[in-house]
Amino acid sequence: MTAWKAEIQVTYKKSVLDPQGVAVEKALSALGYENVDKVRIGKYMELVLHAESEEKARMQVEEMCQRLLTNPVIEDYEYRLQAVSLERGTG
Amino acid sequence: MKFGVIVFPGSNCDLDAYFMVKDVLNKPVEYIWHQEKTLRGSDCVILPGGFTYGDYLRPGAIASFSPIMEAVHAFAARGGLVLGICNGFQVLLESGLLPGALYRNIHLQFRCEWTHLRVENPHLPFTAHIPPGQVLTVPVAHGDGNYFCDPETLETLKNNNQIVFRYVTPEGNLDSRANPNGSLEAIAGICNAGGNVLGMMPHPERAGESLLGSRDGQHIFQSILEYWGEGS
Questions:
Q1: Cβ–Cβ under 8 Å, residues B157 and B163
Q2: CATH number for the domain including B106?
Q3: Nearest Cβ partner of B104 from A15, A19, A69?
Q4: Would you tell me how many other CB atoms lie within 10 Å of the CB of residue B20?
Q5: Taking CB atoms and an 8 Å cutoff, what residues of chain B touch A20?
Q6: Whether residue B210 has pLDDT greater than 80
Q7: Cβ neighbours of residue A58 closer than 8 Å, sequence gap 6 or more
Q8: Which ipTM was obtained for this model?
Q9: Cys staple from B130: which of B102, B126, B206, B219, with CB 3.0 to 4.6 Å?
Q10: CB of B37 closer than 8 Å to CB of B6
Q11: Count of alpha carbons within 13 Å of B195, Cβ hemisphere only?
Q12: pLDDT tens by residue, B148-171
């Protein structure tokens, strides 16, 4: 079994207005950063899972994202997966 | 007719719902802990408001996997009456019993105030006894009540008369200022295709007595009793 670290980013779908993104964009504009737009606020999650292969690890991450970690009605997700060593000092 | 109030970790309107049924309606009611597997013979199940699991991840997301939810799914599939209020509505959406999602209020504010509801479908077990044309005064208290669904789902909701309540002015008119959270089409409550599962953000259980400022929430509960043949 290999340990895989998944780093998952969740954002609202493009079709969903992001109220926090709008508020932060206005604040940036008030600070003088008027060249900024399309601010989106999202979530970052990371986890380590144990699986025989990268393919199996990916399948499980996808399944967990769709069942619990995101709400597919309003959210999109992307993730990175990499094999990690679980010796001390890592994780 | 017997009611059941499901108690999740973090529910906080369970006592209000219990009080409404027991002390206002004088009907039998039991609390049902979320780890139980049966609904204890309830004829109507209430998922109360609150902040289940601290709203971690998304409101209602973790509670939707509670053991009791299997029984709620089976009960709803048999046509059992299910009423989700506020966080209970969020749990019903997250569990797939109702379509769409509720997310952060458009202005980012937590709103605790009176709202006015127009009954868009008066033919349901939950609405059939509301006096025709009456605008209901019912309070909201939430930060994540902004209803969203994709255009296809909205079309289905409209075609099946699944939009049950809309936020309106006291006179009953649509007005963006009467919409407390930015909900799509001013949606305050929807039902499933069968009409036996209702989710709503406003709190009818907090509007049961004049002392509280409104008794309009009683109309919803009286409708349920009428439907069951136990109206007063």
A1: yes
A2: 3.40.50.880
A3: A19
A4: 27
A5: 104, 108
A6: yes
A7: A81
A8: 0.87
A9: B219
A10: no
A11: 13
A12: 999 999 999 999 999 999 999 999
For A5, the 3-state DSSP assignment is strand
Question: Is beta strand B197-200 parallel, antiparallel or unpaired with respect to B187-191?
Answer: antiparallel
Cβ-contact A27, A88 below 8 angstroms = no
Q: What is the CATH number of the domain that holds A46?
A: 3.30.1280.10
What the block records as the tokens of A67 is 């069942």
CB nearest to B107's CB, from A16, A19, A68: A19
Q: Report residue A85's pLDDT band, with 50, 70 and 90 as the boundaries.
A: confident
pLDDT in tens, B10-44: 999 999 999 999 999 999 999 999 999 999 999 99
Closest-approach residue (CA) in chain A for B143: A19
* Pairing mode, strands B3-7 and A2-12: unpaired
**3-state per-residue secondary structure call for B75-110:** HHHCCCEEEEECHHHHHHHHCCCCCCEEECCCCCCC
- For residue B163, give its domain range: 3-227
Rounded Cα distance, A84 and A65, in Å:
20
Residue A89 belongs to a domain = no
